Amino acid sequence: MSDYLYKAAAFAQNAAKLSKKVSEGIVENAREFGLEATSSGHYFETSEEKIRDIRRQLDSRHDREKMDGLKRLIAMISKGRNVSEFFPDVVKNVASQNIEIRKLVYIYILRYAEQEPDLALLSINTFQKDLTDQNQLIRAMALRVMSGIRVPVISPIVLLAIKKCMTDLSPYVRKTAATAIPKCYSLDPTQKDSLVEIITTLLNDNSSFTIGSVIMAFNEVCPERLDLIHPHYRKLCRMLVDADEWGQIVIMGLLLRYARTQFLNPNPESPRSDTQKKKKAFYSDEDSDNSQEFYDSSYILDPDHELLLRSCSSLLQSRNSGVVLSVVKIYYHLAPNAEAYKLGRPLVRLLRTHREIQHVVLANIATMATQRPYLFEQHLQQFFVLSTDPSFIRNLKMEIMTLIANENNITLLLRELQEYVKSPDKGFATTAIQAIGRCAIEMPDMADSCLNGLMKLLWSRNDSVVAESVVVIKRLLQLRPQDNADLIIQLIKSMEQINVPRARASILWLVGQYSENLVKIAPDVLRKAAKTFPNEADIVKLQTLNLGAKLVSFHPNNPTIKLLFQYILNLARYDLDYDIRDRARLLRGLILLDGNKENSNYGEENLEEKNESKSAILTDNLKKILLGEKEAPIEESPSVGRDRFIIGSMSLVLNHSIPGYEALPDWPSEKPDGSFRDSSQDESYKRSKAAKSLSSDSYEHYSTPVFSAYEKNKTKTDNYNLDSFYDSADSLEGGEKQGLTKASEEDTFEEDSSEGTSEDDDERTGVNNNTKT
Amino acid sequence: MPKYQLVHVYRSGLTFLSPISNEVDPLMVLEFQHRIVDILIEYLGEVSEATIKDNFDVVYQLLEEMMDYGYPLTTEPNALKEMIVPPTIINKVISQVAGVTNVGNYIPNGALSSIPWRKAGVKYTNNEIYFDIVEEIDAIVDSNGAIVSSETHGFIQANCRLSGMPDLTLSFLNPRVLDDCSFHPCVRYNKFENERVLSFVPPDGHFKLMSYRVNLPRNQILPINVKPQIHIGNTGGKFDISITIRNTDGKSVEKVLLVFPLGKSVLNVNATCNLGSYMFDHVAKCIRWDLGKITPKEKTPALSGNFTSSEQTPESGHTITLDFQINMYALSGLKVDSLKIYNEGYKPYKGVRSLTKAGKFQIRT
């Protein structure tokens, strides 16, 4: 019968599965049908027939058919299917006139060249031909694909191609040549010397468009050749603003390493005195005065060193968080301490971006705050936790807040943390309590108010809040054994409401450890604990045993306590948990030796005799054994250890070193010769820039009839001046002068406020209040 | 030791993942990933599994252009559009209906612009440029209505439809309210530092010109104030939430939506409101009060009622979030003074509008 039932159940299950499958299939089909008309979804079909069709399509004479076939192939690549069998058919199309087809062919070739090196070579000729194409895009693309083919045999050809392209007129092609260098290097490391030569030449390039890629290549191929940078150092500093965002990040990474080896430490004091100065800055009211003081006393910067700092500083306003953090890295590791105050604001600004970026930025802020909390003190409110913050952001924010806490902001911070404790999210509430504890440890002066705050939490309705606060209070009381009696008494009073084992255990431990201050109360606590002993959790039982032992050792002649302890020991003897049984046995042996002699319930007289001398020693030292000074556990912030990494590095975020991480070189003790940096490079760059650009930090290659005229005026002074701009524009366009000034008057926007109020009801103007000119 | 680190961002329900084998600036990777998503949104309209699948060929080409050997290459939307044609619906429909593809019609002319962020040879019959000043208020308010922290951040979103290579100078009446700015790469930093004007050659199309923090006195009055009163009782509680409008320059506040989360144990809610409508979301356990538009000088909107809970003492301490926007109003009072155009002869049509809205506006209970 049961067998029959079982079969029926299995059958029903199968039927359900089948119907689900069928319905899913229908939905799938319907979707494909629906989409086929307008999308490329159908390329994902992979029936055998379709695959055979691809070969025909690739051989077709119509571009459309070829496109179709190629898209189908790419779709299959994206599905993870191996379609290398089509390589010969695809390679044939590499010389197609149609650029779209070619792009798809390139994608395919880059994917499979490694598997089909011989066939891939067939395409090389086409690429070489393309290198001489008139269109810069085609030249660049040819070089890019060719260098991406991972077949070692062709490395000499790639090298030739790079050499050819690095003198190309188009900066775009030169940039591609620079990016091809690391590829060629990884393909055939023996080419290193010639590649370094190419890099040396490319470093002379004055185009801000290419420089980023050149430095990338430098970092990849010959990061140790800092000597190559000497003549270009000043130029790199000046070009920094104009380079593309990704280039800026890479260049700053290089300049950081360079500066660390070429300049002297701008903060010659040892790190210890540095912290002292920081402390001083806390206490004083006028920070600015202090920083001025540092600055005066500090060492005079090398002009080149200063140049670097100056050229970076405006990039703090970049929209790219990576660039901002790179500047921070430079300032943090290179600038005099007094200069670093600039960093707080821009970093805090980054907290408004995507949460992944927030996480990295917060990790970096936390690291910096362990060393220089003063950078972020005034931004405390920016680290307040929002209810929408995910936990990884929340915890970092909380950590930073405790790191930057000081006398001035602690009340604000504590009030805020108390708010978090109210949160319905238990994990959040407990981390907040831990944070309060950390504050108290960091600032002994504030420990009282922290403790008071924590004590209030004992009446919370939330069990985990109570438990966590007791644990934290215990930790704090351990730090100040002298005057904690009152607080412990309060804890004892609240013990009846506290049900969380960890908290109860903590209180019992405190009572035992500091029982000499609690002569009257401690025995009563033991009495109560004995009453509830059988129903307690294991850790509470263990602590009850400990408490009893400590009290007995403290009042060896008090019969009541002894009896109580014995009662507990007897209960523990039959406990379910062997840890408790063991502990009871140990303590009985340790303390009640003489007691045993009297009762002689168990154990043999002889044995006791022998042990007598030993037990005398034990009894004498009982207090030492049980009540020895216990060191309070140290609360380490999770960011400890992060500061050994460079700011902004991946290793810092992960807090362990990952491959390729190189520690920052130490400052040199002797000043290296700076004359290497005097070169014509900088001058030539300045000249070329002045000739091409229209403002001190502007775009290059910017020449249009209107502009080239007044640019000549500009070359005289590098400082761009609006007035002279107008003057020159006016003098140039004489007749138009009137028009221009007039136009600018007209251009003044009429703001919407006046209109807005008068036409308030008019919905259309309300929404789209564009003022016409 | 793990061989690869995985860096990932989560956006629009998709995770974008990059394996990293070597030390690299993590922000460079994250920022690049976000940029990829931004570009995909610009090309595909929205990013989802379906749109990526439908346009996989474009996505492949874009990735190919944006990255080379692990390094970012071309990431400016203007430059990319010169190389890869965005898949517009019109293109697709034509190719499907008429049976001809658009391929081959378009070969990039190869005249890459010398300014990476602007296309060469842009032409419009109507030259126009619009600026949207958008300011977002982030605030944490405690249950008594006192501001715990508040900051307002703004950004200027531009839509540029100008021909040729215009060089623009935008100046403000009161640049002093701008603090801690960050700029699109097209803005000349030094010029702003020295003269507080924005001088730039704009990219074509939509772009974010700058963002800034509004420099306001720390205890600036917020335009809208929420006062919650919540009493937790046995197996339930009472609440009374009122909203007052202050300091909006007579403008009405629109799209007001208040979300009031309740504990997981809450079973039912009974409430009345004198404006808009409310709904209790049984799954998310929160009250969504949709107020729509509030005009100042109307009577104060209020929502009051009670809830029942399956727990003896329902959990409390949830944070109310508020969403709203105020059209034609900038909290900072930032005003554009003039926009001058150099290097091109035409006079463009110009427009500025402002908008203030809630960023992360949270009220603690």
UniProtKB/TrEMBL annotation, chain A:
Residues 746-763 have a biased composition (Acidic residues). GO terms for biological process: intracellular protein transport; vesicle-mediated transport. Residues 52-591 form the Clathrin/coatomer adaptor adaptin-like N-terminal domain. SUPFAM superfamilies: ARM repeat (SSF48371). Keywords: Membrane, Protein transport, Transport. Pfam families: Adaptin_N. Residues 266-291, 665-698, 718-773 are annotated as: Disordered. It is found in: Endomembrane system. One of its GO terms (cellular component) is membrane coat. Residues 668-686 have a biased composition (Basic and acidic residues). Belongs to the adaptor complexes large subunit family. This is 2712_t:CDS:1. It comes from Ambispora gerdemannii.
UniProtKB/TrEMBL annotation, chain B:
It is found in: Endomembrane system. InterPro entries: Adaptor_comp_med_subunit, AP2_Mu_C_sf, AP_mu_sigma_su, Clathrin_mu, Clathrin_mu_CS, Longin-like_dom_sf, MHD. It comes from the Eukaryota. GO terms for biological process: intracellular protein transport; vesicle-mediated transport. CDD domains: AP-3_Mu3_Cterm, AP3_Mu_N. Its main location: membrane. Residues 126-364 form the MHD domain. The keyword RNA-binding does not apply. GO terms for cellular component: clathrin adaptor complex; endomembrane system. Keywords: Membrane, Protein transport, Transport. Belongs to the adaptor complexes medium subunit family. This is 9820_t:CDS:1.
